[in-house]
Amino acid sequence: MTTNAPVTVLHLMGPTCAGKSTILKACVEQRPDVFGVVEVGKMLRAKYGEAYFKGQAAPEHTQDEAWQLYLGGVRDQINQGKRIVLVDGQPRDVRQARAVLQRPHGQDVRCDFLLIHASEEVRERRARETRTGDSLELALQRMRNDYRNCYVAWVELTRRGVVPTMIDTGEESFNLDATVHRIAYVWSAEPSSWAQRPGG
Hints:
Elements: E1 7-13, H1 20-30, E2 35-38, H2 40-48, H3 63-79, E3 84-88, H4 94-100, E4 109-117, H5 120-130, H6 133-159, E5 166-168, H7 176-187, H8 192-195
Parallel strand pairs: 1-3, 1-4, 2-3, 4-5
Helix pairs in contact: 1-7, 2-3, 4-6, 5-6
């Protein structure tokens, strides 16, 4: 796949309720011309329903379909001219981590990784504030299970030379707008007028 402008596929990794979706939404709202989004988990849950996943973030029986949705979603966003494609929750396991590092989108497309972190206490509080009943129970199960998935994928990336970049959304100093500016500055060939805006 060839592109006319520098493109980065930025994988936002982290457990349920860490803040990935909040950051994705803010990026697209502030700069829809620059940011594209691929939400594989959301697509799978819309297709099958949450109960299908049995509280797991990355069940084995969805791995191949998740990978194909990931590849197709990234391709669509690049074809739409997005310069930063934000991927929610991928890679999901060691196999996918290795595959992403093989540059499946083409040699001219940069792949990078951002770990979105929040403490277990913060994540559980967020889950209880936004969900009830069965939805809450499934979210709490995913929160426990996907922490392991994220950990093993991140260890594999680190083994292969990926330098960790982490944002803690549970810190009092966390600022959503500043985070959007930081992402645009670090991972995009943005015009200097954007990169130098306050918070960048």
